[in-house]
Specification:
Length: 120
């Protein structure tokens, strides 16, 4: 059974930090590209950060560059999102996403989401 379980969300003041974790099970994690998405109320889900299967390449949406860092530990089947200098506009539900290689059909899995609220 495939599972992506996010944790680490919560309420933080502007300028603060949080680290999100996503633990994967039920598939070959080390072969999947991983991403973090977010969705704020009334807005579409957007890609925040992505990392390749071996962790050699990352990319970020412009609004989080220099503040967020995506990383992964394939030995622990876990992907992380370190979020620093948080702003109120970062408030959203954050989702973990996994995508298989093209040769495997780009199968996609989603986690259930974790709420991040940035407010004073």
């Amino acid at each position: 059974q495939v599972q992506l379980v996010e944790s680490g969300g919560g309420l933080v003041q502007p300028g603060g930090s949080l680290r999100l974790s996503c633990v994967a099970s039920g598939f070959t994690f080390s072969r999947y590209a991983m991403s973090w998405y977010r969705q704020a109320p009334g807005k579409e889900r957007e890609l925040v950060a992505a990392i390749t299967s071996a962790g050699g390449s990352t990319n970020y949406v412009d609004s989080v560059k220099g503040r967020f860092t995506i990383s992964r530990d394939n030995a622990k089947n876990t992907v992380y999102l370190q979020m620093n200098s948080l702003k109120p506009e970062d408030t959203a539900v954050y989702y973990c996403n996994a995508v298989s290689p093209a040769a495997w059909g780009r199968t996609t899995y989603w986690g259930q989401g974790t709420q991040v609220t940035v407010s004073s």
